[in-house]
Each structure stands twice: as C-alpha cells, then as structure tokens.
Amino acid sequence: MMTGRITYGMVGGALSAFIGQVHRKAIALDPRAQVVAGCFTQRAEANRATGEFLGLDADRVYDDFATMAEREAARPDGIDAVCITTPNNTHYAIAKAFLEHGIHVVCEKPLCFTVAQAEELVALARAKDLVFAVTYTYAGYVMAKVMKEMIAAGKIGRIVAVNAEYAQDWLLDDLSDDPSASLDLSVWRKDPAIAGAANCVGDIGTHIEYLVHYLTGLTITRLLATTNHYGKPLDLNANMIVEYDNGANGAYWCSQIAAGNLNGLRVRIYGDQGSLEWEQHYPDYVRYTPKGAPTQTLSRGCGYITEKAGALSQLPAGHPEGLIIAFANIYSSVTTTLLKRRAGEVPDQADLDFPQVEDGASGVRFVSAVVQSAAQGSIWVATG
Amino acid sequence: MMTGRITYGMVGGALSAFIGQVHRKAIALDPRAQVVAGCFTQRAEANRATGEFLGLDADRVYDDFATMAEREAARPDGIDAVCITTPNNTHYAIAKAFLEHGIHVVCEKPLCFTVAQAEELVALARAKDLVFAVTYTYAGYVMAKVMKEMIAAGKIGRIVAVNAEYAQDWLLDDLSDDPSASLDLSVWRKDPAIAGAANCVGDIGTHIEYLVHYLTGLTITRLLATTNHYGKPLDLNANMIVEYDNGANGAYWCSQIAAGNLNGLRVRIYGDQGSLEWEQHYPDYVRYTPKGAPTQTLSRGCGYITEKAGALSQLPAGHPEGLIIAFANIYSSVTTTLLKRRAGEVPDQADLDFPQVEDGASGVRFVSAVVQSAAQGSIWVATG
Amino acid sequence: MMTGRITYGMVGGALSAFIGQVHRKAIALDPRAQVVAGCFTQRAEANRATGEFLGLDADRVYDDFATMAEREAARPDGIDAVCITTPNNTHYAIAKAFLEHGIHVVCEKPLCFTVAQAEELVALARAKDLVFAVTYTYAGYVMAKVMKEMIAAGKIGRIVAVNAEYAQDWLLDDLSDDPSASLDLSVWRKDPAIAGAANCVGDIGTHIEYLVHYLTGLTITRLLATTNHYGKPLDLNANMIVEYDNGANGAYWCSQIAAGNLNGLRVRIYGDQGSLEWEQHYPDYVRYTPKGAPTQTLSRGCGYITEKAGALSQLPAGHPEGLIIAFANIYSSVTTTLLKRRAGEVPDQADLDFPQVEDGASGVRFVSAVVQSAAQGSIWVATG
Amino acid sequence: MMTGRITYGMVGGALSAFIGQVHRKAIALDPRAQVVAGCFTQRAEANRATGEFLGLDADRVYDDFATMAEREAARPDGIDAVCITTPNNTHYAIAKAFLEHGIHVVCEKPLCFTVAQAEELVALARAKDLVFAVTYTYAGYVMAKVMKEMIAAGKIGRIVAVNAEYAQDWLLDDLSDDPSASLDLSVWRKDPAIAGAANCVGDIGTHIEYLVHYLTGLTITRLLATTNHYGKPLDLNANMIVEYDNGANGAYWCSQIAAGNLNGLRVRIYGDQGSLEWEQHYPDYVRYTPKGAPTQTLSRGCGYITEKAGALSQLPAGHPEGLIIAFANIYSSVTTTLLKRRAGEVPDQADLDFPQVEDGASGVRFVSAVVQSAAQGSIWVATG
Q1: A320 and D323: CB-CB below 8 Å?
Q2: Do residues B103 and B228 both lie within one domain?
C-alpha cells in the first residue's frame, strides 16, 4: 500500500450532521488520511465547536468556503482535497471554487442541479487535471466490486434483464391528510430550491442508476418514467423503465413512502448464463445463480472469492463490514491516487476505482430525463 | 360446512400432464367432490388408461369434449361441473360447449385468446346463470385471503405504490446462440398458435394482474410496457407500469429468463398506513409493516390472525400448506357454491371467493394491452 | 407405478380431529388408496357423522376397535390396513388387535409407552409378516429423502457434529403464575396418563431422533438430558446431548415454550466434507455447503437434483409441496408395498422407505432414556 | 458527550495482525482517542514499521512491554491506557505489568489461562482502582444493548430457556485423514501452550458465555460438556448444557468444524412472556416475539426503538454498522469513563457498559469447568 499522508478539508459536516460524520469516520479508518481544515457550517459557534472537537487549528476553521479555498490554496501545507457534504444546491459553487484553486474534490451526490453545471465541472476538473470523486457510496462495498469483476469476466453472460430499487419509508408522514402535517420544509431534502428538481429520484434513484452502471458497464440510452407527488412539491415515489446500450431493459423503482423499507437498495442482474443479486442491508453477501445450478450465497472474506477485489476485505468472513468501510474504501482509493500522483507515479485502474465526476454528471442527466419523461406523459427520453 | 356430493368431469389432465394432476389432487382433498368423467387427452390409449387409473366407468371416458358435454348433460347423474386444463388455444371452445349444455365450468387461465371471446364467455355464463371459475391459483392461499381482508379493513390505508413480479428461469436455454437450441415448439407454451399472443405475460404476468386486483380491489385503468423477445416468437421478459383507478402506479415484472427464480410470484403493496409483502415460495407467511412500527411476520394458523379467512387453515401454524391446498380452497368454494345452489340457498360472499369469469376476461384485456403497448413503443394503453 | 386399489380403515380421526384429517388427505392424494371403514371416535354420534361425511357404508363404521378388527378381518373385502390416530395411550392395544387379525398397520407416533410394549409389537409384526408403518411424517418430505441419499453418497463425508431441534410455543400459557391457568388436562397431550412419561420429548423430541437417524444412518449409543417441567406434570422443554455409534456427538433441543417457534423442526448435519441444513417451515429447500465452497440452496424440483428421491416431486420447483404431500409420500410407499405383496412381488428398498415398527420402538427407547437421564442428574444412559 | 483526549498504547497489533488493526480502527472512529505508543511485535523491523505507519514518535515504539510500561508511566504525557492484543498466553503478564504501573487496561479475551491468574488480575485492578476492560466485542453492538434493556424491562418475562451457539468452519482442514495435514502449529491458536487448555471453547465458546450473561443477567451455576478433539491436541467442537441461577437451562454449542458457518454467533433467549433472537451476521436486527403475537423484526435506528441504547446508533436504520462500530462502542465507553475520572466525575452505569475484568475472570472459570466436565465424563461442574 502506498504510504504517506493526505490532508482533507471539509465543507459541511458540523457535529450534528449525519453524512459529514460518516465522511470523517471513513477518513479516520485510514491512517494515511487526516482532516485538518473545515468550514463545517454557517452557524459560527457550531463551526468553531466542530473544529475544536476535531482538534483542528483555529485558523483552519473558516467562516465561508471561498475564503477556505483561497487560504488553503495559499498555505504551503494546504489541504490536498476538499470533501463537500453540504445541501445539494451548494455543491456546484463549492466544487467550482476549490477546483479553481487547484484543490482535489470529493463531493456528495447529486453532483449539482443542471446538466450544464455538471458538464462545466467535468470540463474544469479535466482541464485542471484534478481528482474529483463523487460519493456514490455503495460502489465501495467489497462485494459490489466482486460482482463487477464477475460480470466483466462473463460469469453471468450477456445481460438480459435488470431489476433494481431503492426503497425507504421516511416520508410516509408527508402523506397524511392532516394539513398540519404538510411537508416540513425545514428538512431541506424536501425543498426543491435546495434539493433540486427531484427528491426521491435525485437522492436515491441516482444510486440505482450509478450502481447498475458500475456493476454491469451498461449505459442507459433512453428511459421512461412515472413519478408520484401526492400533492407535495417533490416526487415521493417513481417507476422507471430504462433501455441499455445492449438492447436489454431494466426496471428501476425508488420510493420514500414504502413502509418497512429502510435503505433498501437492491439490485438483481440477470444474464443468459446466470444472475447476481445483492442487497445493501446485507452487504457482505451476494446471491449468485449460475444457469442450471443452485443459487450460491457468496460471502465476503471467504477463500473461494478469487476476484481481486476480494483482497480489500478488512474483516474475516462473517464479521460484518458495514457502510463506514464501504465509504472508507472510496476514500482510500482517492488517498492512494493522490499519494501516487504526488510521488510521480501513475495510478492504476484499481486505484481509480471510485466514482468520477463524469459519473456524477451522468446522474444529473438521469434525473433530468426522469423529470422530463414524467412531465410529458411517460414518453421515452434519451439520456445520451 | 355445506355437505353433499358434487361431481366433476375433466377435459385435459392425462396422467402425464402436470396441471391436470394438480386439479385432481385439489378435488381429492375435499370428500364432497369427486371426478367421475373425463376426456383427458386425444391420444385414445392414454385417455383410457387415465380413466382406468382413476377408477372411472369406461362409458364416462370420452373421445372428444363435444360428445362429453352432450352425453353428460343428458345423464340424470351427469357431472355438475367441468374442469378445463387443456392448452390455452382450446379453452374458449371447450368452455362454450359445456356452458351451452348447462354445465358449470372451472377453467385454467388464460381464459381465452381475444377480448371478444372473453366477453362472449362472460355473457354466456351470466345468461345461463352458471358458475364459471378461472383458476388463478394463488388467490387460494389462506394468507392471500387474509391480506385481502386486512387491506379492505384499512390496515395499510390508501394504497400509494405496488411492486409485483413473477419470475422464472425455465426458458433460459432458449437464449442460447446455438442454432440447435432454437425454441422447442414441442413445448406448446412457446408456440403463439397454441399459447396465444403472449407467452410470459400471458402465462405468468396475468397472475400478477389478478392477484394485485384480488388483494387490493384496485383496477388498472391504463398501462405501458416493454417486452423482450430476444429473437423468439414470444415474449420472454416484460416490464409494465400500470396506473390504478385510485391514481397510484404499480410496477410489474414478469420473466422466464431470470436465473435462480423458480415460481417467484411476489407482491408488495404499500399504503399510507403500512405495507404487506408476500411471496409464493413461502405462502404461509406475510410481512406486515404498520407505519412507524416494526415489520411483523404473520403466520397462517396463529391465534393473532383474526381475519375470517384465517379459519380456512387446514394445518397448524408452521406446518406448510403448499400449492395443492391453495388450489383445493378454490375448488371447495366452487363446491360449496354448487351445493348451496342445489339446495336452493344463496351462496354468500365467502362462498363466491374464487376467481370469476369476469376476472378471466380482465386478464385477457391485460395481456392484449401489454402486447399493444409494447408493439407501439410503450405508449399508454387503456384497459377499460 | 404399481396400480390397483388398497383399502384403509381408521381408528381415530373424527371430523374434529387434526391429525386424522391429515391422514385422510394424505390417503386421498393417491387414487390407488381409499378409506372404507372406521371407528373414528367413541362418541357415537360423531362417529356416525364422520362415516357419513366420508360416504362410508354404515355397517363399516364401528363402535369399538376390537369389533372393527374382527369384522373387517372376516369380510372378503376387508380393509388391507388400519391407520391409528388415537391418543398415545391407546396405540399399543389397537395396533396389537389389528396385527393379531392379520391386518397391516399405519400408526401415529409415539408407537406406545414402554420398551416392552414396543418390542412386543415389533415381534408380533415380524412374526405375522405384516407391514407396520409409524408416521414420522417429516421423513416423507422429498428433500429429506434427497439429503439421505446425499449423505449416503458421501457428499458431506464423515459426520462430526449434529445440531437439531424441534421448537414450538403452544404451551407458553401453561407457564403463567396465575393458578387459574393451571395445566388444562382436557388437552390430552398434557396428561401423563394419556400422553406418556414425556410430553415434549415424546411428542416432538422423537421426531428429532428419528429424522437424524433417517438422514444419517447414525444410531445413538448413549445420551444425557435435562428436562424442565416448571411445576407441571410433564416436561415442557428438554436439552439432550447424544453420542452416536461413529463417536460424534449431537445436541438436541425440544421445547413447547419457545415463543415464536411454530413447528420449528431444524436439522443441521456437519461432516468433514461439508454440511446440510434443513428446516420444516421451508421444506422444499436444503442448504448444502461443500467444504471450502459457497453455501448452495438446493430446491426440490430443480434439474440439478440428481438423487433418485428427487423424482418423487409432485410439483414443479418453486411451488411449495407442504406437509400433506410429505404424509402422502409415506402412505404411497405403504400402498405400493401392499400392492406388490398382493401381486407376489418383492417390494424394493425405495418402496420400503417409510418408518418401520422398529423405528417406532427406537423412539420409545429414546424417550425412556431421556426420562431416566433427567431423573438421575443427567447421567449418561445407554440406548442400546 | 464528554470531551477531551485519551491516549492509548498498544501491545501487539503489528501491521499484519488482524485483531490489532480492528482495535486501532475502533479507536480511530472516536476523535477523543488516539494511539500514541506501542510495542507491536517482537520482530524489531516490523515493530518500527508499524510505529512509522501510524506516525508515532520513534521513542514511543518499544522493544518490550515491560520497558513500555515503565517508561510510559514515567512520562508526564504517558498513555492513559494500554490495549493488549497479543496471543493468549501473554495476556496475564502484560496486563499485570501495566496495572502495576498504574495504567488502565483494555485486554483481548481470554483474559488469561488459570482461575488463579484471573483472580489476581481482578484483585490488582480493584486494589489500584484502575479501569480494566475485556473486549468481548459482541456486547458492543447497539442491538445487543437494546436486547439487554428489553430483558431488564421484563419484555420477555422470566427466562425459561436459552439456545446459543458460535459456529465456524476454519479448522475443517484439520480433520483430514492425510497425515501431512496434521495440525499446523504455526497457527498459535491451535497450540495449547499458547492458546490455553481449550481452543474452540476458549476462543469462541467464551463469547457465548459472556453475551448470554450480558443480555440476561443470568449467571451459570453449573454446567456439563462434551468436547471433540478428533485426534488433535485441542478441542474442535463442544456441546454444553448449563444451569442458571434462576433454575433454567441453556444449551451452548461452539464449533470450528461446522461447514458453512463463518462467525455464526447466535443467541435465542426464551422467556415466559416472549423471546429474542439475534445473529452476529446481521447485527442490526433482532427478532422479537411477544407471547401470542407475531414475530417482529426490530431494526437498529428506527424510531420505535425507545431503549436508551438505541441512541448509540451512528448510522440511520438500514445502513449496516458492522463489527468495527461494535468495537468502537466499547472503546468509547472506556474513553468516556477515563475522561470523567480525570475530570473528577463519577462514570454512570451507561459509561461503564463494557466488559469488566470480572467478566474476563468469569470466562476463564467457564473454560476451566468445560474442560473439567468433558475430562470426567460429562459430569456437572460448578462454576461458582
């Protein structure tokens, strides 16, 4: 493993924020990486307290992201990369600011709001030759990587059908007929101005889109969709039928009103030689059915996992790894990539096995196409 | 329980036939019913041998169904009802013949090939005031009936999303690129002339359509679909998005090329107050999630099942009932209905809790709409 | 399949009785077998009504089993075999009476109360050369038979550990401290005078003992046990450690106070080359782990099941068979055996694949040893 | 949450060691804790490299633990606590050395080899008023803590039966008849001189003993056991029946030759008012059956988890936490306890919710009793 130290700064991630803490824990699992600066929130006191809790130098806790980008870029020991974990509507401006100062980026999804913004970020990152990771976390699970290798190796043959979904139930209360239970806009995910044109599709539907692409290599050429708003400003439930570049179809479903579903991301990939099934709730296991043979339950960490990605296991088989480790795998890839670049080495394909800015842009196009199809009576919309 | 004896005749169901034997076992579980006549196959020797194996009088084993309908109608002890378990393309003519002779009908699905035929059978059955059951078997499971009552009682509230599927893998070999592996037409299910305009949608997609309707009472107003033929004359895989009369959408998927799926009929019904999930592979159990509460696994036979249908349990909880009993429940309802009519009583709603000829007609309209939508670029097609 | 007709009579099995109905349904699934006589209960009216419901000749519905044995033996068309489904304390006398009249026997377990009685029945059956089946039902499941063949073929190697259990919860109410909730003796299973020296061990513990023996061929040489009565006359929960004739140990647990368990019979057999796991709640599936390889879920009915017993499947894979069919498999073996004997043929090993009177006797010895060990401070007791 | 910084040193845990890395990751998830010193291995070069990888000062990487204890105790900024992750036979001496220098201890299990050693460590820790945690990791899972609260609150009533097990299969190869496959003593866990008098019972059986005690508060008063060595110097499989101080029995099984089991720690606790079931492979879920009601699947993170321990969740429901977080929960409790003591506060019960040295001693007594019972023909052995 490439040794050395990479320093990260955070925009977002105050002590009370969920996803910011996850990013920090993921970074903490790798002794080669460290958070040394941040602009955690616009609430000054909480910002200061977060920095103190993390043991940061007070002068590296910034009031605004623009100042942070400028000053960190100017320091000889400035951060190598910034992690952006703020609400969706701010990703674009923050990412752009750090890129312009030559700082690598790790950004939460959705990357941004419009296809134009996305393309601008892609172009900027490539022009500046900067690393830009988008945290589609689930691709960080070891067994996701194992499935990707199995499919690439032809284990399930030509893909003929996909059925994938991401179901939650945390917005069920919004369906109440009680007017006092109307959509609580203090939750920014439900506010179109902050979350973007799509709620459910943007927040979790994009995870389906990316994960299926990551696993199979298939690209969606067109799609059609229905969305259900049930009187709310944003979609709560959506069904999509997609067509891939190999001619097969996939059915995607995302919902935030499906009682009993927590973070139910499930993918089932069917090929003419077999199938693979995986569920985020039990991420260490994959159900693999070779054509004509019994279904096998593959477990991360077992000796029969001969795919290269199996070596990323951090715990023995039967000891659950969980989401933090999936996240940490993404960060470790970024860290290794940055260390190799610093050392003048060329990162290899395994180092670069994290979601790129182009994947983030693809997600923005996907959301845009779903919104358009649903608005126009479920017509086919190209996503090219 | 209504006592007495009802006699059945069979068209189809030679010893080597799968579904015919299932019908016979279902009938055999009820001491009130008996098979006494048949036209089991057009192969004379096998026809005779089947009758003999069943201990039938030789003069009630017929060479053709028309003769059987005529003679049985003429006998003082003629059959009360006929069971039709022949290939799809013959259902219409056989059902019509027996109806015309005043004999009640139990018919396999799909009911027939065209909407016009279906409407004709509906009209004939109603004009003659005859019982006409269509064996959408899965509605015979006790827990399906329990779910139906729970939904009717408002246990999951207003339905906001449905996700249902029926996946198999027995046609995977047809995907081979090997020309010698081309579609084996000796299997009649794959021959459009015998099976109808749709294979996968007709054979198993219709089970989804009926079961969701049975459970929820929702009616599909329109649908759109993609079907995948992969070079074969009939569809092997299909995705459908449906719209119900309450405005919600459902996603249906059926496939006969999904490796690792056997008879994977699964329904998930989401309401604004909770959800229900059920899978045919484990038919005695239902997963019920009341909003905001843990998921409960309801088991057939347990004391907490207070719905009336729970009383249909034939075995204690934890002793699996299986498909034959689901089938038998449908037959027992038909038998009770016939006994009550004979006794001059009016069958109640519970007696009539079996799929009616109108349900069969609805299935034919569903298949027709799917075929049309897929052929016209996945446009919405009304099913009214 | 051997054709012909075998007639059965029943002792026990009035309309209101659970297990008697199961026997009748199991018989009904085979067109070669028929119930033609009975002494269903000592309540004369219910006895008569049961015969009528079943369509029996009134003169073949008997007031007592002794008369039934005598008269049926005297008739030219007398029953071939009797099914005994009465409370435990009556099995011995009834079985003996029919054997003495030369009538074959199918008897519920436990076979009888004492080792001496058991040995007498074994000797009598063998002396008279009569068929004597004991309905350890679970050995009738197709996948149990498949596991037996797999183990015999060495698929899991030398057996090194067994963990098996049968857990229920229907006696939980008996644990109440409320004196008014004291043991309801109207339920005969809880009355030592009727059920025998052991309740839980006798009723369900014996199923563990037989099933493990059936699957593995291993014989218990000695065992030790604890039983828990919690103030009741009979055991409600028991733990056993057994030693087999190959030197390995097994852990058995049976309970009728384990909340959430219905008829939770589970066996896990570990060999030095792999393992097998099976659960009665999902009887169509077996979990098979070859050493060093992923766990496979084997499904009844799939093409990869190459064991001979796989051919007993009555339904396609994915269509659950359930308990009635397991029971029917036992009856069909008995029926075939009787038909072959009538035809002067020698039944083969597959025909005789049903629990024999010696197996029933082995169960009586097992119960006796458990009771003795528990009474004497959990010492080892030989079961030879 | 108590803020401040606690520093840890490690004995054991070179880069190549499994469990040492787990400890380090667990520490890293809490920004309040830091590893600052170590004696990672006796291989000088690996020791140095580990320190460097972790970014430690070179003068705090020690050649031997005795020197480390002495020097760290002498430094004004010396470590607050030591983590001992070395092979079993060294725990006693190392723990004793650090205790004598007034340094708190976190030690892997088994605590030591003999009951006398264990009692000495207990006495020393108490005499010196030092914190001494033993890493029975599984008690760190949030849902284990939730179950503990549920049981304490009477949710399942009086406990009447326990069935618990820890099954693995990694020693299956040792069963080979091939003499060249004889027990590989380079694996220290298989060497009695290093691992202690029991392998399977000591390494994983003790996890059963502690977890059941932790969850239920029940203490084992006596036990009996069989162990299976299959020609090897240490036990590979063991069955135990225990008796608790409330009169109930429990069945424990541990095995390292059970094909298909990875780290299969499963506990099932049955009370007269309900039951709880939990499995380490899916640690975020608990199956809870209130008497007479459906089984509920409780998920960590859901709003209906009202037990205090639920608040320890670090991730939303449906995002798996995994073993590292369980470990981190134990370390965070230790860290909070140490911070409060430093601040002159009294740690409360929740702070002290980690396995204590007395629990470690209890484990040593358990192993000793199992070994004794098995050696003396499975007699009852008191564990008082």
Answers
A1: yes
A2: no
